[in-house]
Amino acid sequence: MKSLNLTAFLILFFAAMAVAQTAATEEDYNYMIKGYNLGVKSGMGLKEGYSVIESKEFDESHFHFTYISLGRKVGDKVEHVGYILKMNDNESKNEYFFGLPHNNAPLLERSFLNIRTLSANALAAFLKTYIRLDQGIK
User: Fold this and answer.
1) With the C-alpha atoms ordered 137, 81, 118, 120, is the resulting torsion angle positive or negative?
2) Percent of the chain with pLDDT over 90
């Protein structure tokens, strides 16, 4: 029941944060959680049609978070489709990637199912940094 309440809270929380932006697609989501990391690590760079709008970094507890605002070219402009979340655990040296897609509730729910598998400390650190990101607090 607790995990269901947490999942419901996360869905409502992030849905409230979404503003009128292009809806993320399944392709966008897959790129956020897999393709971006593979392209950058292999030296291939970003996939055609995508760009990094901005990136913000936060430290919370023993975690380092990088929120990468992903843009997709739509016509002759670039529209924000979500965040790539890169999370580093400085104690275990593990690195995690999550996608935070905008305006697509089923994809967002899938993302929350992955995020809720984090430890309680990691999840609390994630929520604190996401709120700071949304409020523009460093």
Assistant:
1) positive
2) 77
